C-alpha cells in the first residue's frame, strides 16, 4: 500500500513538472491581506475574499520552473501569475486573462510602473465599445479606474505591446477569461507585485 501511495505522489509530481510550472503545496496563504486600506489618498475597499476560490488567494508556493528570481511567469491556462523568489519558491497570485480572441503568449519586460495610473482605452477598443469614447483623453485615477491601483507596462523588441499587468476593482473576474488581453490582479495583489517587481523584469506569458 505504501509503495502504491508513493508511486501516485511521484506520478502527480511528474505530471505537474511536465506542464511547465512545478508547484508543490503552499508555505503561506495571505487570505487575511484583502481588507480595506488607504493608499496614496484613495480608500481601497476590502474584498470579500471568501467569495474568491482559495487557489486564487495570494500565497507563497514551492516553485521549480528554472527561471531566475525576479522573473514573472503568467500561466493563462490555470489563471496564475508567479513572481519567482530565491530558493525554489514563488509568490503566486490569481489572475484574470484575455477572453476568447484576445489571448496572447510571448516574452516581454516591465518597461514602466505606475501608481494609480490613468487609463486610456485604445482606439480599437473604442470602436468595439463606443460608450468608452468619453475616456479617449484618459480615465482619471481612482477606485473605479480600469487599471486599478497599479499598472506594469509590458514592452517587447517592437515596443509597447499594449498589454499591462494591472489591478482591477472587478475582483469576481479573477480566475476567468474576461479581459481584452491584459492580465488582471486584485488591487491588493497588484500592490504587492508592484513592490516586488523591478523595471526591466522579464515577463513570460504562457
UniProtKB/TrEMBL annotation:
* Active site residues of this protein: 166, 182
One GO BP annotation of this record = regulation of cell shape
The record's family statement is:
Belongs to the YkuD family.
Q: In which pathway does it act?
A: Cell wall biogenesis; peptidoglycan biosynthesis
Limits of the L,D-TPase catalytic domain:
70-206
Q: Give the signal sequence positions.
A: 1-20
Q: Name one GO cellular component term.
A: extracellular region
| Keywords, sorted A to Z | Cell shape, Cell wall biogenesis/degradation, Glycosyltransferase, Hydrolase, Peptidoglycan synthesis, Signal, Transferase
Q: Name one GO molecular function term.
A: glycosyltransferase activity
The protein, known as: ErfK/YbiS/YcfS/YnhG family protein
Could you tell me which PROSITE patterns the record lists for this protein?
A: LD_TPASE, PROKAR_LIPOPROTEIN
Asked if Glycosyltransferase is a keyword of the record, the answer is yes
